[in-house]
Amino acid sequence: MVIVFDLDDTLYEELTFVFSGFKAVSIDLSPLIGIHSELIYEGLKKELEIKREKVFDRFLQKVGKYRQELVKRALSVYRSHSPTIHLYPTAEACLKRLQQHPLYIVTDGNKLVQKSKFLALKLAPFVKRCFFTYAHGLHRSKPSPYCFEKICRLEKVSPSRVVYIADNPNKDFVGIKPLGFQTIRVLTGPYSNVFIDEAHEAEVQIHSLNELDDKLLKRLEM
């Protein structure tokens, strides 16, 4: 069985990347706007609690320091910083446990940001390849099956021999299930309590990657 993992909120907590980015932005902006970095950091977190969109814009407006060039600078620092993030302990154990299988990652998002996460998490020794979907064009991000079909060709297997483990029912499974790919949803991250419909849901649900083992994989093969 070929095993493919999502990245954000499947192998690590994505919010830790956000906070790492906020730290980097806070340190960078502090001398430019005359506000202590810790106050900037706490202000950004408060804006995030309101909503995720335009966090830097809204914070700078609230403290009376808004300039478009500062927003662009903050976004650049956020996207290019070297993040302090770590695999879920269950994820690291799972990756080690399943090393006899071909392992891949398929992840959406800005390709430079996702690559920095991949490197920070030290995932290269565990997987054969990580597919950054945006590198192939936005139209080939999930729910497009494009990268999954590439994995089939690389491994010379049918979709029924490939299982995708991910957390987001909005996009992770709906594009590949009709083609026969196996799907497992891990109930972690912000979507853990989100349920849409059968078309968007995985065939199997687990609460932790501790449950992903050869016994479960053999059940999928039956």
TrEMBL record:
UniProtKB keywords: Hydrolase, Magnesium, Metal-binding
Listed cofactors: Mg(2+)
Coiled coil stretches, renumbered: none
One Pfam family named in its UniProt record: Hydrolase
InterPro entries registered for this protein in UniProt: HAD-like_hydrolase (IPR051400), HAD-like_sf (IPR036412), HAD-SF_hydro_IA (IPR006439), HAD_sf (IPR023214)
Claim: ATP-binding is one of the keywords in the record: no
GO biological process, one term: small molecule metabolic process
Keyword Transmembrane assigned: no
SUPFAM superfamilies in UniProt: HAD-like
MF-aspect GO terms: metal ion binding; phosphatase activity
NCBIfam families recorded: HAD-SF-IA-v1
Protein name, UniProt field: Uncharacterized protein
